[in-house]
TrEMBL record:
It holds the Pfam family Epimerase. This is NAD-dependent epimerase/dehydratase family protein. Residues 2-228 form the NAD-dependent epimerase/dehydratase domain. The lineage of its organism: Bacteria, Pseudomonadati, Bacteroidota, Flavobacteriia, Flavobacteriales. It comes from the Bacteria. It comes from Flavobacterium bernardetii. Gene3D superfamilies: NAD(P)-binding Rossmann-like Domain (3.40.50.720).
């Protein structure tokens, strides 16, 4: 039996849609009844309601070891997709618990239950650092522990360390490090907010870069690596490194075309790093006085001006992999959600 953690997230949803087309039994764990109903609605919209009903859904939390052990009954393969994504400094402990302790629980139970292979969905945030003289990042780039890192980045790196520990103790593992994942199903979360913000008239941009990838590519890489003999390896999944301006302009052009709405404009104001630094200080004062959440941490600001480029030659060679054309993909994605 295959177990999928995080079955009600973006990657989990699309992974289950793919796995449900195959013959092997599937179990998926979830925490929220509301999110489970949302996923059921998405399966129904894809004319896959029968496939949803065939999945063995179990309510469990990766921090609840007894419930997790029950979910692992008769499981041979595990896709670990569950994670907390947050860049709020107040979520440091939640990130540690969900991403590091939760992954340690998944690894420990996989070892005790003699699971054959574990595939873990990490992030490019866990990768090493570029330097002034070399901005190209690959799977072997060293991580500078002195660099300013988000708590999310630290938690995903810590989670990877738990997976590598499992590998050293005899568990076959593969890790994928996707960039910002675009996909259908969660219009008010994650990468979909880029599209929503342009719809709402966002007018600012930076020239920093981000790596983007289609969720279907992440799923394809995951399932192909799981079926392969590859173990003890990690793979970067980035279809394209694009500046924020290029991405926002592209989204605006597609929205204007698809919705036939001339009011949609490309962001036109370039924000300099010093301006964001000033905003961070003001936000900190405001958040302290009025007990509000902070969003502009130093690590977040650094990411807005990051110029690193991701080398994806390893995944392409390992399984003869080709990424989706992200210009065409975004057009199709926006057309589905208009």
């Amino acid at each position: 039996m295959i177990l999928v953690t995080g079955g009600t997230g973006l990657v989990g949803l699309h992974l289950l849609l793919q796995l449900s087309q195959e013959k092997e039994a599937i179990r998926a764990i979830y925490r929220s009844e509301k999110k489970l109903q949302h996923v059921k609605n998405l399966f129904q919209a894809a004319n896959q309601l029968a496939a949803f009903e065939k999945i063995d859904w179990m309510q469990a939390d990766i921090l609840d070891v007894p419930a997790l052990e029950l979910a692992f009954t008769d499981v041979t393969l595990v896709y670990h997709c569950a994670a907390l994504v947050s860049f709020n400094p107040k979520d440091e402990d939640k990130l540690y618990q969900n991403n590091i302790v939760g992954t340690a629980n998944v690894v420990n139970i996989s070892l005790s239950k003699n699971v054959k292979k574990l595939a873990y969905v990490s992030s490019i945030a866990a990768l090493g650092n570029g330097t002034e003289h070399n901005l190209i990042i690959n799977e072997e780039t060293e991580r500078n522990n002195e660099a300013v890192r988000s708590d999310y980045s630290i938690s995903k790196f810590g989670a990877e360390m738990e997976v590598w520990r499992g590998f050293q103790e005899g568990l076959d593992v593969v890790i994928v490090n996707p960039g910002v994942i675009f996909g259908n199903g969660f219009p008010k979360e994650g990468s979909s907010l880029f599209i929503q913000n342009i719809k709402d008239g966002q007018s600012f941009y930076t020239l920093g870069k981000l790596g983007i990838v289609a969720v279907e590519d992440v799923v394809k890489a995951l399932t192909t690596l799981m079926k392969s003999t590859i173990s003890g390896e990690r793979f970067i999944l980035v279809a394209e490194d694009v500046t924020y301006k290029e991405l926002f302009d592209r989204i605006a052009e597609i929205l204007k075309q698809v919705q036939n709405d001339k009011r949609i404009k490309k962001p036109k104001y370039l924000v300099k790093k010093w301006q964001v630094q000033v905003a961070r200080i003001l936000e900190f004062i405001f958040a302290t006085l009025f007990f509000r959440n902070r969003m502009l941490s130093q690590s977040t600001i650094n990411s807005l001006y990051n110029l690193e480029i991701h080398d994806t030659s390893k995944i392409k060679k390992a399984i003869d992999f080709e990424f989706s054309n992200m210009k065409m993909y975004l057009k199709g994605l926006i057309e589905k959600t208009k």
